[in-house]
Amino acid sequence: MHVHHVGNLAELGPSGPGQPTWAAVMARRKRKAPVVCETCHDHIHVGQPNPILTA
């Protein structure tokens, strides 16, 4: 397991259709550091959508 960390919630960008699912989940839960699997963490860092990360 990996922890993805952002400095503050504003870094997640505006909510809406352009916001990645992982960012929307973090914003909704008001969390700056979700625990995700290694594959999902890699997807977050390269900016690829990942169907495993659902809202």
Strand order of the largest sheet: 1-2
What would you call the structural class?
mainly alpha
The succession of helices and strands, N to C, reads EHEH
Integer count of domains: 1
Mean pLDDT: 80
Shape: globular
Stretches where pLDDT is under 50 for at least 5 consecutive residues are none
Q: Helical stretch count? A: 2
Structure description:
It is globular and about 25 Å long. A two-stranded antiparallel sheet has the order 1-2. It has one domain. The model has no long low-confidence stretch (mean pLDDT 80). Helix content is 33%, strand content 7%. 9% of the residues are buried. With 55 residues, it is mainly α. It starts with a strand and ends in a 9-residue tail after the last helix. The chain has 2 helices and 2 strands.
Summarize the model shown.
Helix content is 33%, strand content 7%. By secondary structure, it is mainly alpha-helical.
Task: Offer a few descriptive terms.
55 residues; mainly alpha
Topology:
Layout: E1 2-3, H1 21-29, E2 35-36, H2 38-46
Antiparallel strand pairs: 1-2
